[in-house]
Specification:
Layout (H helix, E strand, L loop, with lengths): L29 H26 L3 H26 L2 H7 L8 H25 L3 H27 L4 H4 L5 H20 L6 H24 L10 H24 L6 H35 L2 H14 L1
Protein backbone atom coordinates (compact mmCIF):
# COMPACT_ATOMS: atom_id res chain seq x y z
CA UNK A 1 0.00 0.00 0.00
CA UNK A 2 1.53 3.33 -1.09
CA UNK A 3 1.32 6.74 0.64
CA UNK A 4 -2.10 8.38 0.44
CA UNK A 5 -4.00 5.17 -0.20
CA UNK A 6 -6.70 3.89 2.14
CA UNK A 7 -6.99 0.21 2.96
CA UNK A 8 -10.39 -0.98 1.68
CA UNK A 9 -10.04 -4.62 2.64
CA UNK A 10 -9.39 -5.57 6.29
CA UNK A 11 -6.31 -7.56 7.22
CA UNK A 12 -6.90 -11.25 6.64
CA UNK A 13 -7.31 -13.23 9.84
CA UNK A 14 -4.96 -16.08 10.59
CA UNK A 15 -7.24 -19.08 10.28
CA UNK A 16 -7.21 -22.47 8.61
CA UNK A 17 -9.65 -24.51 6.57
CA UNK A 18 -12.61 -25.70 8.62
CA UNK A 19 -10.77 -24.93 11.85
CA UNK A 20 -8.17 -27.63 11.21
CA UNK A 21 -4.45 -26.98 11.87
CA UNK A 22 -2.33 -26.15 8.84
CA UNK A 23 0.53 -28.29 10.13
CA UNK A 24 -0.25 -31.76 11.34
CA UNK A 25 1.32 -32.23 14.76
CA UNK A 26 3.50 -35.33 15.14
CA UNK A 27 1.75 -38.26 16.75
CA UNK A 28 4.59 -38.71 19.22
CA UNK A 29 3.95 -39.30 22.91
CA UNK A 30 5.67 -36.73 25.13
CA UNK A 31 6.99 -39.27 27.63
CA UNK A 32 8.49 -41.45 24.90
CA UNK A 33 10.01 -38.88 22.56
CA UNK A 34 10.97 -36.14 25.02
CA UNK A 35 12.37 -38.87 27.26
CA UNK A 36 14.18 -40.37 24.27
CA UNK A 37 15.95 -37.12 23.37
CA UNK A 38 16.87 -36.44 27.01
CA UNK A 39 18.32 -39.91 27.58
CA UNK A 40 20.16 -39.88 24.27
CA UNK A 41 21.72 -36.54 25.11
CA UNK A 42 22.72 -37.81 28.54
CA UNK A 43 24.34 -40.88 26.99
CA UNK A 44 26.27 -39.04 24.27
CA UNK A 45 27.69 -36.40 26.59
CA UNK A 46 28.52 -39.03 29.24
CA UNK A 47 30.67 -40.92 26.73
CA UNK A 48 32.63 -37.78 25.96
CA UNK A 49 33.08 -37.07 29.67
CA UNK A 50 34.16 -40.67 30.29
CA UNK A 51 36.80 -40.54 27.58
CA UNK A 52 38.25 -37.34 29.00
CA UNK A 53 38.28 -38.78 32.51
CA UNK A 54 40.00 -41.94 31.32
CA UNK A 55 42.66 -39.94 29.48
CA UNK A 56 43.40 -37.82 32.57
CA UNK A 57 43.55 -40.65 35.10
CA UNK A 58 40.16 -40.32 36.83
CA UNK A 59 38.85 -43.91 36.90
CA UNK A 60 35.84 -43.25 39.13
CA UNK A 61 34.55 -40.46 36.87
CA UNK A 62 35.28 -42.55 33.78
CA UNK A 63 33.28 -45.49 35.13
CA UNK A 64 30.32 -43.29 36.03
CA UNK A 65 30.34 -41.83 32.52
CA UNK A 66 30.53 -45.23 30.83
CA UNK A 67 27.75 -46.75 32.91
CA UNK A 68 25.60 -43.63 32.43
CA UNK A 69 26.14 -43.83 28.67
CA UNK A 70 25.07 -47.47 28.53
CA UNK A 71 22.07 -46.90 30.78
CA UNK A 72 21.01 -43.75 28.95
CA UNK A 73 21.21 -45.20 25.45
CA UNK A 74 19.46 -48.41 26.56
CA UNK A 75 16.53 -46.57 28.11
CA UNK A 76 16.48 -44.20 25.15
CA UNK A 77 16.12 -47.14 22.78
CA UNK A 78 13.32 -48.57 24.91
CA UNK A 79 11.45 -45.25 24.75
CA UNK A 80 11.91 -45.04 20.99
CA UNK A 81 10.75 -48.60 20.37
CA UNK A 82 7.76 -48.05 22.67
CA UNK A 83 6.73 -45.04 20.61
CA UNK A 84 7.21 -46.95 17.35
CA UNK A 85 4.96 -49.68 18.67
CA UNK A 86 6.93 -52.71 17.46
CA UNK A 87 10.68 -53.42 17.77
CA UNK A 88 11.00 -54.51 14.14
CA UNK A 89 10.15 -51.00 12.98
CA UNK A 90 13.52 -49.79 14.24
CA UNK A 91 15.24 -52.64 12.38
CA UNK A 92 13.34 -51.68 9.24
CA UNK A 93 14.86 -48.17 9.39
CA UNK A 94 18.29 -49.76 8.97
CA UNK A 95 17.31 -51.18 5.58
CA UNK A 96 18.06 -47.79 3.99
CA UNK A 97 21.17 -45.60 4.30
CA UNK A 98 20.12 -42.10 3.25
CA UNK A 99 22.55 -39.28 4.16
CA UNK A 100 19.92 -36.61 3.46
CA UNK A 101 17.49 -38.09 6.01
CA UNK A 102 18.08 -37.24 9.70
CA UNK A 103 15.92 -40.22 10.66
CA UNK A 104 17.97 -42.65 8.58
CA UNK A 105 21.30 -41.28 9.76
CA UNK A 106 20.10 -41.21 13.37
CA UNK A 107 19.11 -44.87 13.20
CA UNK A 108 22.54 -45.88 11.92
CA UNK A 109 24.20 -43.64 14.47
CA UNK A 110 22.38 -45.35 17.33
CA UNK A 111 23.16 -48.78 15.87
CA UNK A 112 26.89 -47.95 15.91
CA UNK A 113 26.98 -46.06 19.19
CA UNK A 114 25.02 -48.54 21.33
CA UNK A 115 27.47 -51.48 21.04
CA UNK A 116 30.47 -49.18 21.58
CA UNK A 117 28.96 -47.69 24.73
CA UNK A 118 27.97 -51.13 25.99
CA UNK A 119 31.42 -52.62 25.40
CA UNK A 120 33.10 -49.66 27.11
CA UNK A 121 30.95 -50.03 30.22
CA UNK A 122 31.08 -53.82 30.48
CA UNK A 123 34.85 -54.06 30.08
CA UNK A 124 35.36 -51.34 32.71
CA UNK A 125 33.02 -52.85 35.29
CA UNK A 126 34.27 -56.41 34.75
CA UNK A 127 37.93 -55.44 34.44
CA UNK A 128 38.33 -57.44 31.23
CA UNK A 129 40.02 -56.65 27.91
CA UNK A 130 41.32 -53.19 28.83
CA UNK A 131 42.58 -52.42 25.33
CA UNK A 132 39.23 -53.30 23.81
CA UNK A 133 37.57 -51.17 26.45
CA UNK A 134 39.76 -48.18 25.68
CA UNK A 135 39.04 -48.52 21.97
CA UNK A 136 35.30 -48.77 22.62
CA UNK A 137 35.44 -45.75 24.92
CA UNK A 138 37.15 -43.71 22.21
CA UNK A 139 34.62 -44.85 19.63
CA UNK A 140 31.67 -43.96 21.84
CA UNK A 141 33.22 -40.56 22.58
CA UNK A 142 33.68 -39.93 18.86
CA UNK A 143 30.00 -40.65 18.19
CA UNK A 144 28.74 -39.09 21.43
CA UNK A 145 28.35 -35.45 20.25
CA UNK A 146 26.31 -36.58 17.24
CA UNK A 147 24.12 -38.78 19.45
CA UNK A 148 23.50 -35.83 21.77
CA UNK A 149 22.52 -33.39 19.02
CA UNK A 150 21.14 -35.27 16.00
CA UNK A 151 17.62 -35.14 17.46
CA UNK A 152 17.78 -31.35 17.20
CA UNK A 153 18.40 -31.73 13.47
CA UNK A 154 15.58 -34.25 13.30
CA UNK A 155 13.18 -31.82 15.00
CA UNK A 156 14.28 -28.82 12.92
CA UNK A 157 13.80 -30.80 9.69
CA UNK A 158 10.05 -30.99 10.34
CA UNK A 159 7.43 -28.34 9.44
CA UNK A 160 6.60 -27.76 13.13
CA UNK A 161 7.13 -23.98 13.53
CA UNK A 162 8.70 -23.90 17.01
CA UNK A 163 11.27 -26.48 15.92
CA UNK A 164 11.89 -25.45 12.34
CA UNK A 165 12.27 -21.74 13.12
CA UNK A 166 14.92 -22.58 15.72
CA UNK A 167 17.05 -24.71 13.36
CA UNK A 168 20.16 -22.55 13.82
CA UNK A 169 20.35 -22.64 17.61
CA UNK A 170 18.50 -25.84 18.56
CA UNK A 171 21.57 -28.12 18.16
CA UNK A 172 23.49 -25.85 20.54
CA UNK A 173 20.59 -25.90 23.03
CA UNK A 174 20.58 -29.70 22.93
CA UNK A 175 24.37 -29.91 23.19
CA UNK A 176 24.46 -27.66 26.24
CA UNK A 177 21.54 -29.50 27.82
CA UNK A 178 23.25 -32.86 27.24
CA UNK A 179 26.48 -31.60 28.81
CA UNK A 180 24.54 -30.31 31.83
CA UNK A 181 22.77 -33.65 32.28
CA UNK A 182 25.95 -35.74 31.99
CA UNK A 183 27.90 -33.54 34.36
CA UNK A 184 24.97 -33.44 36.78
CA UNK A 185 24.84 -37.22 37.00
CA UNK A 186 28.61 -37.33 37.40
CA UNK A 187 28.47 -34.83 40.28
CA UNK A 188 25.91 -37.05 42.01
CA UNK A 189 27.89 -40.26 41.65
CA UNK A 190 31.58 -39.29 41.60
CA UNK A 191 33.85 -38.46 44.57
CA UNK A 192 34.53 -34.69 44.61
CA UNK A 193 38.26 -35.26 44.21
CA UNK A 194 37.74 -36.69 40.70
CA UNK A 195 34.79 -34.52 39.66
CA UNK A 196 36.76 -31.51 38.39
CA UNK A 197 35.97 -32.09 34.68
CA UNK A 198 32.30 -32.61 35.53
CA UNK A 199 32.18 -29.27 37.36
CA UNK A 200 33.74 -27.45 34.43
CA UNK A 201 31.48 -29.23 31.95
CA UNK A 202 28.45 -28.26 34.03
CA UNK A 203 29.30 -24.57 33.88
CA UNK A 204 30.20 -24.66 30.19
CA UNK A 205 27.11 -26.65 29.23
CA UNK A 206 24.81 -24.33 31.17
CA UNK A 207 26.29 -21.24 29.52
CA UNK A 208 25.93 -22.74 26.04
CA UNK A 209 22.37 -23.92 26.65
CA UNK A 210 21.07 -20.70 28.20
CA UNK A 211 22.79 -18.42 25.68
CA UNK A 212 21.64 -20.45 22.67
CA UNK A 213 18.06 -20.68 23.98
CA UNK A 214 17.93 -16.92 24.56
CA UNK A 215 19.30 -16.25 21.09
CA UNK A 216 16.84 -18.68 19.51
CA UNK A 217 13.79 -17.10 21.11
CA UNK A 218 15.00 -13.59 20.27
CA UNK A 219 15.31 -14.50 16.60
CA UNK A 220 12.08 -16.49 16.19
CA UNK A 221 9.64 -13.59 16.32
CA UNK A 222 6.03 -14.49 17.05
CA UNK A 223 6.84 -18.23 17.23
CA UNK A 224 8.83 -17.57 20.40
CA UNK A 225 5.48 -17.16 22.18
CA UNK A 226 5.18 -20.95 22.24
CA UNK A 227 8.25 -21.09 24.48
CA UNK A 228 6.81 -18.54 26.91
CA UNK A 229 3.20 -19.65 27.28
CA UNK A 230 1.36 -22.62 28.69
CA UNK A 231 3.03 -25.84 29.69
CA UNK A 232 6.09 -25.17 27.53
CA UNK A 233 6.60 -21.78 29.16
CA UNK A 234 6.48 -23.24 32.65
CA UNK A 235 8.94 -25.97 31.73
CA UNK A 236 11.37 -23.57 30.03
CA UNK A 237 11.34 -21.17 32.98
CA UNK A 238 11.96 -24.05 35.37
CA UNK A 239 14.79 -25.27 33.14
CA UNK A 240 16.48 -21.87 33.20
CA UNK A 241 16.31 -21.58 36.98
CA UNK A 242 17.45 -25.16 37.61
CA UNK A 243 20.27 -25.04 35.07
CA UNK A 244 21.62 -21.72 36.34
CA UNK A 245 21.39 -22.86 39.96
CA UNK A 246 23.05 -26.17 39.13
CA UNK A 247 25.94 -24.47 37.34
CA UNK A 248 26.44 -22.11 40.28
CA UNK A 249 26.37 -25.01 42.73
CA UNK A 250 28.88 -26.95 40.62
CA UNK A 251 31.26 -24.00 40.65
CA UNK A 252 30.87 -23.51 44.41
CA UNK A 253 31.43 -27.22 45.12
CA UNK A 254 34.90 -26.93 43.62
CA UNK A 255 36.01 -24.03 45.83
CA UNK A 256 38.87 -24.84 48.20
CA UNK A 257 37.25 -22.89 51.01
CA UNK A 258 34.31 -25.31 51.12
CA UNK A 259 34.63 -28.21 53.57
CA UNK A 260 34.41 -31.86 52.46
CA UNK A 261 30.87 -32.45 53.75
CA UNK A 262 29.53 -29.18 52.39
CA UNK A 263 31.27 -29.85 49.08
CA UNK A 264 29.61 -33.24 48.75
CA UNK A 265 26.17 -31.88 49.62
CA UNK A 266 26.56 -28.92 47.28
CA UNK A 267 27.76 -31.16 44.43
CA UNK A 268 24.81 -33.52 44.89
CA UNK A 269 22.29 -30.66 44.95
CA UNK A 270 23.91 -29.12 41.87
CA UNK A 271 23.85 -32.45 40.05
CA UNK A 272 20.17 -33.00 40.80
CA UNK A 273 19.34 -29.46 39.62
CA UNK A 274 21.27 -29.92 36.38
CA UNK A 275 19.55 -33.21 35.62
CA UNK A 276 16.12 -31.76 36.35
CA UNK A 277 16.89 -28.68 34.27
CA UNK A 278 17.88 -30.82 31.29
CA UNK A 279 14.67 -32.83 31.57
CA UNK A 280 12.62 -29.61 31.65
CA UNK A 281 14.47 -28.26 28.61
CA UNK A 282 13.71 -31.32 26.48
CA UNK A 283 10.08 -31.57 27.57
CA UNK A 284 9.67 -27.80 27.16
CA UNK A 285 10.98 -27.86 23.58
CA UNK A 286 8.69 -30.77 22.81
CA UNK A 287 5.65 -29.01 24.28
CA UNK A 288 6.43 -25.78 22.41
CA UNK A 289 6.54 -27.68 19.13
CA UNK A 290 3.18 -29.32 19.72
CA UNK A 291 1.60 -25.99 20.68
CA UNK A 292 2.95 -24.28 17.57
CA UNK A 293 1.59 -27.02 15.30
CA UNK A 294 -1.92 -26.68 16.74
CA UNK A 295 -2.18 -22.90 16.18
CA UNK A 296 -2.20 -21.81 12.50
CA UNK A 297 -0.93 -18.31 13.27
CA UNK A 298 2.54 -19.68 14.01
CA UNK A 299 2.64 -21.09 10.48
CA UNK A 300 0.97 -18.21 8.61
CA UNK A 301 2.59 -15.16 10.23
CA UNK A 302 6.24 -16.25 9.65
CA UNK A 303 5.34 -17.08 6.04
CA UNK A 304 3.89 -13.59 5.54
CA UNK A 305 6.92 -12.00 7.17
CA UNK A 306 9.29 -13.89 4.87
CA UNK A 307 7.22 -12.93 1.83
CA UNK A 308 7.18 -9.26 2.89
CA UNK A 309 10.95 -9.32 3.39
CA UNK A 310 11.48 -10.64 -0.14
CA UNK A 311 9.14 -8.10 -1.76
Amino acid sequence: MTRGETRMVPEVETTSYYGRPIVKAPVWAATDIAGYIFLGGLAGASSLLAAGAQATGRPALARVGKVAALGGISMSAVALVHDLGRPERFANMLRVFKPTSPMSMGSWLLAAYGPAAGLAAVTDVCGLLPRVGRTATAGAALLGPAVATYTAVLFADTAVPAWHEGHRELPFVFAGSAASAASGLALLATPPGQAGPARRTAVGGAVVELAAAHRMRARMGVVAETYRRGRAGRLIRAAEVLTAAGALGAAVSGARTVGPTARRITAAAAGAALLAGSVCTRFGVFAAGMASARDPRYTVIPQRERLAART
